[in-house]
Amino acid sequence: MIAAQIVPTPVGALALLSREGVVVAAGFTADPEEMFARLTPALRAEGLEVVDDLGPATQAVRAYLDGDLEALDAVPVSQPGTPTRRRLHAALREVKAGTTVSYAELAARAGLPRTAARAAGSACAQNLIAPFVPCHRVLPSTGGYGGYLYGTPVKEWLLTHESRRTANAG
């Protein structure tokens, strides 16, 4: 069974979906079914149950919102993808809070050629586990915020939250 919880955040509800303590989906929506629909058929076959508390994942989100920007890093995650996409998602998890990278930089960090910037953009677009896999920390090299599945205001809020906290810590 896939367990789901809705956690309130300053930028709206965050749906968390977990299977045996591993986050399999997370996104800024009040409807866990929206995230559930993006899972693989095998996971969807397990069914969905909304619960009151997912334990460590929920605690990590609350700690992150309270200023512990590394709290999400310790939560195990799992999402499907090609070997290239998995390398990109792993590289994303290494981008520290308060910093950003371009799509080309993300590709380079994943050990992929600079021409793989398009693959990096695709990996961000297909990311099922925001903000645990922090695609909000990737910005276009041409400037601006670029796209974000949950809207630019959410991306802006996450980046501002992280930059304020890292500035205060320094």
From TrEMBL:
Pfam families: DNA_binding_1 (PF01035). PROSITE patterns: MGMT. One of its GO terms (biological process) is DNA repair. Keywords: DNA damage, DNA repair, Methyltransferase, Transferase. One of its GO terms (molecular function) is methylated-DNA-[protein]-cysteine S-methyltransferase activity. Transmembrane segments: none annotated. It catalyses: a 4-O-methyl-thymidine in DNA + L-cysteinyl-[protein] = a thymidine in DNA + S-methyl-L-cysteinyl-[protein]; a 6-O-methyl-2'-deoxyguanosine in DNA + L-cysteinyl-[protein] = S-methyl-L-cysteinyl-[protein] + a 2'-deoxyguanosine in DNA. CDD domains: ATase. Residues 85-163 form the Methylated-DNA-[protein]-cysteine S-methyltransferase DNA binding domain. This is Methylated-DNA--[protein]-cysteine S-methyltransferase. It comes from Nonomuraea aridisoli.
